[in-house]
Amino acid sequence: MSSAPLQLASLSGVEAAKRAAAYAAVDAHVGRNDRIIGIGSGSTVPYVVERIVQQGKDLNASRIFLPTGFQSKELIVSNGLQLGDVDCHPIIDVTIDGADEVDPALNAIKGGGACHLREKVLAEAAKNFIVVADYRKNSNGVLGTSWTQGVPVEAAEFAYSKVMRDLTKLGGKPVLRMGKAKAGPVVTDNGNFVIDAPFPPEQMAKPKELLQQIKLLTGVIEVGLFVDCAKAAYFGNNDGTITIKTVDGKVQENVTFDVSKAPVVA
In this structure, are 97 and 201 located in the same domain? Predict the structure, then answer.
């Protein structure tokens, strides 16, 4: 592959850092032998796809890309990549997705875009699940510190009222998520409702326990707590650098990445 500089649109600030984080994540985790790739959602993911495309048509011709929702499906199709489905490819080499908040142990809140059921399926089906986001999603405390809207809970439409009562009994303050450009509740791609349930910090400090408690409620389809899933997280900082965290507890801060260089595919 040529090492000639790439011709890229000029970006600054956090957008430049998000691109750098996405490029670094792809270079580190999307290798030559990765054939089934999950593509998530969020404002950083278009840069993930951009970098994958730069890896070359010949390499991507033998790959299949699985979307977590409408945005990622459109990214895959518009970039001429081969669209697949988890029904046909239940084992994924790597999934790269965004997040609403990530704690120091790489546990995450996802579901701000109401896609967390499919996002979790693709995350858990992947040999490697990688998060790419901006610095605002990088929490040094418990989950819920920066993402204050609450834990996204997808619930069956006919059971949502019961689920809200159950979440209240667990200590949450559930609110049915309403549409911004439509009258009525948000409806997921699966035809369900989304409940946002803030919980006290002492419960959020034990995300695995809270996840299990919510998941056992009859009527709950999926919970936007992603626990013990991610292998690494890449954050674009406001000063243009990136922070890299891995599941073994290592943290690299103020990392610079030259996006003008062609990708090196391991």
Answer: no
